[in-house]
UniProtKB/TrEMBL annotation:
Location of the BD-FAE-like domain: 60-183
Entry protein name: Carboxylesterase family protein
Annotated InterPro entries: AB_hydrolase_fold, BD-FAE-like_dom, GDXG_lipolytic_enzyme
Keyword Cytoplasm carried by entry: no
Keywords, comma-separated and alphabetical: Hydrolase, Signal
Organism in which the protein naturally occurs: Hymenobacter canadensis
UniProt keyword annotation of Ion transport present: no
Signal sequence range: 1-20
Origin: domain of life: Bacteria
Length: 406
């Protein structure tokens, strides 16, 4: 009898873990199981002041597999290239990549974000990149809000991926790894721009990503990547003269701005334990996958397969967006805002049975820095005297969740 009970408990545990995952059977998310794609154009996902101070309505195009009946689907949000000066959500590569992944079963979106900066200098291009990041975060929150309310697009809020090409990749990398105000150079004036989260729309929902797709992008520092961060997939040409593969400066005629590219970001990810894939395009220049030449189309196929093969195993695991959940059968939780200054709200999903329980706050070395009682499904965690940094909240019945105080 005891063996039977243990077997039943084990099965229940497997079912609980499986219920949090995405069904990848029958070739879904790997083969083009849908022939046609339905596009919802000009969907408003927010608004915010542009560099000139004029309020800009933020639009996206959403791609869905035609005839799909799955009720909770993963999302990939793409941001276009263009140096934060030009580009559009309808650029040919954005249309092509969104269509290809929607045919696999994903919901995909191509966003427009605030462009332009003046004067044309290092300070203002950095500010433009922050605005792009804030808008991409608002797009993530848009889908989370939809999942919690109207469910128009039938998405799973735990499986939202951000990605981009060139400038769009800068924004995606910042969504994934820029989570503390202290990481932003003081000359940017982050507070005047609205902080890391910004105010582009859909407040109250997490902007954390399941994974980051970096296509010919870079960041200010490798130190943005820390233990526990989202997985990273990079595709980059070694002869990129616009955004360096390893490290160098960007901006053309602007005063030099030094950045680190995929050739350093992915080794850093490996060093701190972040799952990652780097597809090195030997001898290729900047965004070669966007060219319509025969070589460009071959690069586009390589990029598509790299992203596809990187993402599909992540779909077979409990979502890492709202919590650091593993296959433990524990309930995932949400923490927001991330980062926070004085307090963070911990929230258990609606409809989940909750009982008060003991919880711990650990630093990244695993040291317990605070013990507290998790009394209710929606509870505030006060910073009090905690130093700035990244922490993990761990409770008896709930999955680990990452929080950041700045």
């Amino acid at each position: 009898m005891k063996k039977i009970v243990l077997l039943l408990l084990a099965c229940l545990g497997l079912l609980t873990a499986a219920s949090a995952q995405i069904d990848t059977t029958r070739g879904r998310y790997y083969q083009p199981v849908f022939q046609n794609v339905t596009v919802s154009s000009n969907v408003t996902y927010g608004s915010a002041p542009n560099f000139a101070g004029t309020t800009q309505t933020l639009l996206m195009d959403i791609y869905q597999p035609t005839g799909d009946t799955v009720s909770r689907r993963p999302v990939i949000i793409f941001a276009h290239q263009g140096g934060f000066l030009v580009g559009s959500r309808t650029d040919p590569y954005m249309v092509a990549v969104c269509t290809r992944f929607a045919r696999l079963g994903y919901v995909t979106a191509s966003i427009e974000y605030r462009l332009g900066f003046f004067p044309f200098d290092t300070v203002n291009v950095a500010r433009a990149s922050i605005r792009g990041m804030q808008d991409l975060r608002a797009a993530v929150r848009f889908f989370r809000r939809d999942a919690a309310t109207t469910r128009t697009y039938r998405v799973n809020p735990r499986y939202i991926v951000v990605g981009g090409s060139s400038a769009g990749a800068f924004a995606a990398l910042q969504v994934g790894y820029l989570d503390k105000d202290s990481e932003v150079p003081a000359y940017v004036g982050l507070a005047t721009l609205g902080g890391i989260e910004g105010s582009s729309g859909n407040p109250g929902y997490s902007s954390a990503a399941l994974a980051v797709l970096n296509l010919s992008g870079a960041t200010e520092s490798v130190n943005y990547l820390e233990p526990g961060n989202a997985p990273l997939c990079s595709v980059h040409g070694t002869a990129d003269a616009v955004v360096p593969y390893a490290q160098g400066r960007v901006g053309g005629g602007l005063p030099p701005k030094y950045v680190v590219g995929s050739g350093r970001l992915n080794p850093r990810a490996t060093a701190v334990g972040i799952p990652n894939t780097l597809r090195t395009l030997r001898g290729a220049g900047h965004i070669p996958f966007e060219s319509t030449s025969a070589a460009g189309l071959a690069y586009a196929d390589t990029t598509f397969r790299t992203i596809r093969d990187f993402l599909r195993p992540l779909l077979r695991q409990p979502g890492t967006v709202l919590s650091a959940a593993r296959a433990t059968g524990k309930v995932g939780t949400q923490a927001y805002p991330v980062p926070a200054t004085t307090e963070i709200r911990l929230a258990v999903p609606r409809g989940v049975a909750f009982r008060p329980q003991q919880a711990q706050l650990l630093d990244l070395t695993g040291r317990v820095v605070r013990r507290f009682r998790w009394q209710q499904p929606d509870q505030l965690l006060l910073r009090e005297n905690l130093p700035a940094g990244t922490y993990i909240v761990r409770a008896e019945q709930l999955a680990d969740v990452r929080v950041v105080f700045e």
